[in-house]
Amino acid sequence: MAADLTTPNGTPGNGTPGNGTPGNGTPGNSTPGNGTPGTDPARIHNIGYRSYDGPRLGRAYARRSLFSQSLRGAYGLGRSAKSKVLPMILFSVMCLVAAIIVAVAVSVPTMTDLPLQYTRYAIVMQAVIGLYLASQAPQSVSRDLRFKSVSLYFSRPIERADYVLAKFAAMASALFILTATPLVILYAGALLAEFDFADQTKAFAQGLVSVALLSVLFAGLGLVMAALTPRRGFGVAAVIAVLTISYGAVSTVQAIAWEQGSTAAVEWLGLFSPVTLIDGVQTAFLGATSAFPGGEGPSAGSGVVYLLAVLALVCGSYAVLMRRYRKVGL
Q1: pLDDT per residue over 311-324, tens digit each?
Q2: Which pTM value belongs to this model?
Q3: Nearest-angstrom CA–CA distance, 195 and 185
Q4: DSSP 3-state assignment of 292?
Q5: Among 106, 164, 202, 303, which one has the highest count of C-beta atoms within 10 angstroms of its own C-beta?
Q6: What is the torsional sign of CA 129, 133, 136, 140?
């Protein structure tokens, strides 16, 4: 009696396994009639991944790179053309006013000094400086917070202190370039007009010290205001309020106090605005003419209080920034 060769799911009488094709003895899922296995497009390639064994530049290099990137970004370098418009316009305005002053000094043969002191230039142009800071401080820190890219910085060999220090130094450097370049133009024009070399050099050095102090103070305050919110518009408004509006309010109250004969109050009211703080310090220690009503700034004794207030604000701004970024998680 013949054996039954029928298998489950197979074909009767050919002995092929299940799911095969009749008459060829090939396994299931093969190509009919040719005995060739099915073709699989997947491939495994050994492309030789190796670990990095080159030099590791470390935190210092990362900190310098972040500083350089932030400083370039403050003037729109490396960004879109639209981002360059406002900072370059404000920088041009600062330099153009200085060039006009130089042209007047050179064209009038009877003049023996510049019509505007080096230490007074930044005070007179404080509105332009405030607008520059209001536009660039949020760009430096608010976007990182808004798009949550701060954690990408901290995933590298860089600490929060490195991030804060690099951003602080970059903004202070950008402000120093903005405020010191016009002083260089004034100094060059004074030498071109053959004014006294020793007097001009001394006044120029005093002006550089003044704008350096202003740059550090304004950078700290601007970054603190911008870092408190990821919304750039709110940061702009906060910076303008702290710098420009506070200066207008303090100056108005000082003028009222002066008209009412409260000269002592005028001196101490200057402690409530960043601009008048710088004015008081340079009046007390750098031989500047005060912009306070009546032209009477703080004395040397009161100037110490002004200087301590400036240093306290700078250190406080750094501490607030450190605390703010300590809350930013990975």
Answers
A1: 999 999 999 999 98
A2: 0.81
A3: 14
A4: coil
A5: 164
A6: positive
